[in-house]
Amino acid sequence: MITRVFRVTTDKDIKRVLKLGRRFSAPEFSLHTLQNTLNHPRMCVIVASGVSKKAVVRNRLKRQVRESLRLLIKEGKIGYTIDMVVVVRPGFIKVEDSTRQQFFSDFLKKIGLI
After folding, report:
1. Which residues of the chain have pLDDT under 50?
2. Euclidean distance between CA atoms 40 and 27, whole angstroms
3. Full-prediction pTM beyond 0.90?
4. Running DSSP on this structure, what letter comes out for residue 7?
5. In this structure, what CATH number is given to the domain that contains residue 68?
6. What pLDDT does 31 receive?
7. What's the CA gap between 10 and 7, in Å, rounded?
8. What is the structure's pLDDT at 53?
9. What is the count of structural domains for the chain?
10. Burial class, 83, CB count within 10 angstroms (exposed 0-12 / middle 13-18 / buried 19+)
11. Strand pairing class (82-88; 22-25)
């Protein structure tokens, strides 16, 4: 589990990242990034009810994305001082569970965050 220090928690901060941040898109999710003044990255995962009507599925997707980011932060691959907001889209359900972490890290390499 990722600690609260590494999460964007306030609604004000999330809206600021979504409005002012840089967006990177894929059919499965979009990633919004914005520089912060802290010495570590922070993140937030948003899964709307349009992705799945079942809260169990939405929560599972959130956990998987958070875990992928936590491992990348722990390994020091994401060393930037940025705030990240990941907005999961319905296409992310089609990616197999076993390959979601690799899929997410490949996307971050592609856009240059790793």
Report:
1. none
2. 28
3. no
4. B
5. 3.30.230.10
6. 94
7. 9
8. 94
9. 1
10. buried
11. unpaired
